[in-house]
Specification:
The complex is a heterodimer of chains A (276) and B (314). Chain A has 15 helices and no strands. Chain A is mainly alpha-helical and 276 residues long. The two termini of chain A are 29 Å apart. Chain B has 15 helices and 2 strands. In chain B, strands 1-2 form a two-stranded antiparallel sheet. In chain B, strand 1 and strand 2 form a beta hairpin. Classes of the chains: A mainly alpha (276), B mainly alpha (314). Chains A and B meet through helix 1, helix 2, helix 5, helix 6 and helix 7 of A and helix 1, helix 2, helix 3, helix 6 and helix 7 of B.
Chain lengths: 276, 314
């Protein structure tokens, strides 16, 4: 047995188990507080272990807190943005990866650069532009803004993936008489499925978790996605910690589900972005 | 090497029987392909580059959002130089880059080394450390607000350890508020850094470490002298990403303190938002945004250069 591959000693788990529990403490405490009653928290403090079990925090968050409507807004925006962004990024990446477009590398890096800009440099003009177009304070505005901002990154990643596909596949399609549309649809897209899955998992969590774009183009509370709605909930129920904890947990559940279902794609998505 | 020569090198290997025909096949760019490129490019130009350009011109004006913007030359920038809150935000951003970057690298690298080799329960530990990464920054902020509340879990824990006198109003105390927010941000970032380092470690050549071990190097020496040099690429990416992320940081501060108490947790991004949206000083807010951009641009270029190099290889 080699020196560097020695099996771990039992101490590894002795340290890691409490560490992991401590790491998850903010989530575990939020869960404990969410199921306590308001009176219990008021009487015994936030740090106490639960002695009551009550779903009133969830009931209030969904009732007066309008968490359900906010979740629907988030879902609509997320699905629309992910689908449109990936579609546009895929066609752009296909054009740049497989055709001799002049300055194609410069165009690609230019598009990626757009995604790296600090959003702050865009906020004020974007807010004004959506007003000028008459889409300010609509979910459509939130979708188009996020599509524009995300495109560069997804195009870059898909371009890298398409370049790595063997050239023969494309040549065969062309020799078979397939035009660019058919080559894209029936050859490239199926081959790109792993990359698209990784990016979709990643994009879903990013867009679902967005706050700043929502604050930039939305004003009416009933249109807020869950992140912005939660901050309002915090203002409205500032001492009802069970309501705030319940709302926060509900907001974290959808992305946690995506993460657990697609953990492999999610992690590989993070890596393609960083190029190892 | 230009794009053209790359394409040629790929399409005409020396033993290719019909180089002309093949090159012709790939060289002609059909109209539809131009559309494929033009639509996304136009969307990005309109929603990203055009607004960015506008921020620059707005930063030389004074505008309350109604009527016409008044050109004021460099007045906004002169005001920034004298603005104490801007100074606080700038210093806080430096503290943020160092603290947020340093702590998440230490945590992420340490955990990646500990969890690099597969083994019993390792997958579980990894998932647990990744988990905060999928929680939004706004929700992270709320989770940690709960932790920091007076008589919340942290204070209860300190009392339990007999350190009750350490407890305080973590988020309301100007001395601790910024660091309290920073810890919450690090908690969420460590998983991401760990993912990057785990991939980096996987890419390291194990025979080098074996050879060093045979030569009598201990684990500590092997790590710093053999493994770390191989992680240079990962380190560059992490450095650039950390700085870019730090300059963007907004959500978590907004969710936890909104820049308070007394502007002690103000970062450039939160101050920009406050000026631009809460106070509707569009010109002044734009000037802060331009400063953020100028601070970020060197790191954006670093990241782009690194990415374009790996494009060469692929």
């Amino acid at each position: 047995m080699s020196v560097i591959n020695r099996p771990r000693s039992g101490w590894f788990h002795v340290i890691m188990v409490p560490f992991t529990l401590l790491w998850l403490a903010p989530i575990l405490f939020a869960a404990m507080i969410a199921v306590r009653s308001f009176d219990d928290i008021a009487a015994r403090g936030l740090g106490a272990l639960p002695t009551s079990f009550s779903l009133e925090g969830f009931a209030t968050a969904f009732g007066g807190g309008r968490v359900a409507a906010a979740l629907v807004n988030s879902a609509v925006v997320t699905v629309a943005t992910v689908v449109v962004t990936l579609a546009l990024a895929a066609v752009a990446a296909f054009a740049l990866a497989r055709f001799r477009i002049p300055f194609r590398r410069t165009i690609l890096l230019f598009m990626l650069a757009g995604n790296l800009l600090p959003p702050q440099i865009l906020l004020i003009p974007v807010s004004r532009i959506t007003q000028a177009l008459g889409i300010y304070d609509t979910l459509l505005a939130l979708v188009v803004v996020q599509v524009g901002f995300g495109l560069g990154f997804y195009t870059f990643v898909l371009h890298g993936f398409m370049r790595s596909l063997p050239t023969e596949v494309f040549e065969a399609a062309v020799l078979d008489g397939a035009g660019p549309a058919r080559t894209f649809w029936s050859v490239v897209l199926p081959l790109c499925r792993p990359a698209l899955a990784a990016l979709a998992a990643l994009a879903t969590t990013w867009i679902f978790n967005d706050l700043i774009w929502a604050m930039t183009v939305l004003r009416t509370e009933s249109k807020f996605p869950i992140t912005a709605a939660l901050l309002n909930l915090q203002g409205g129920f500032s001492s009802s910690w069970n309501v705030i904890a319940a709302g926060s947990l509900v907001a974290a559940v959808p992305t946690a589900i995506v993460f657990f279902l697609f953990q492999k794609q999610f992690v590989s998505g993070l890596l393609v972005g960083s190029n190892k | 090497m230009t794009a053209g020569t790359v394409a040629r090198a790929r399409t005409t290997p020396p033993d290719d029987p019909a180089p002309e025909r093949r090159r012709g096949v790939l060289a002609r760019v059909p109209v539809l392909v131009w559309v494929f490129l033009a639509v996304p490019l136009a969307v990005e130009l309109f929603w990203v580059f055009w607004p960015a350009f506008n921020s620059f011109s707005l930063s030389f004006t004074s505008w309350k959002g109604v009527g016409a913007a008044q050109p004021v030359g460099l007045a906004n920038y002169e005001r920034l130089v004298a603005d104490p809150v801007f100074h606080t935000a700038l210093v806080n951003n430096v503290i943020w880059v160092v603290g947020f970057g340093g702590l998440s690298v230490i945590g992420g690298l340490g955990l990646a080394v500990a969890l690099n080799r597969p083994g019993r329960a390792v997958g579980f530990y990894r998932s647990a450390i990744y988990l905060p990464m999928v929680v939004s920054l706004a929700v992270t902020g709320l989770f940690w607000r709960v932790m920091y509340q007076p008589d919340g879990p942290i204070d209860a824990g300190l009392h339990g350890l007999g350190l009750g006198e350490w407890s305080r109003q973590w988020l309301a105390d100007p001395d601790t508020a910024l660091y309290a927010v920073l810890i919450a941000a690090v908690w969420r970032q460590v998983g991401y850094i760990m993912v990057l380092y785990l991939a980096g470690l996987k890419g390291c050549d194990p025979t080098l470490e074996e050879a060093a071990a045979v030569d009598g190097a201990n684990a500590w020496q092997r790590f710093w002298r053999v493994v770390m040099p191989q992680l240079r690429g990962v380190n560059t990416v992490i450095f650039a990403v950390t700085v870019i992320d730090s300059l963007r940081t907004f959500d978590i501060v907004w969710a936890m303190t909104r820049g308070g108490p007394y502007n002690t947790t103000q970062l450039l991004s939160t101050y920009m938002f406050q000026q631009g949206f809460t106070l509707v000083n569009l010109g002044y807010g734009s000037a802060i945004a331009v400063v953020i951009f100028l601070l970020a641009i060197a790191f954006i270029i670093t990241y782009l250069v690194r990415q374009s190099r790996s494009e060469d290889v692929s």
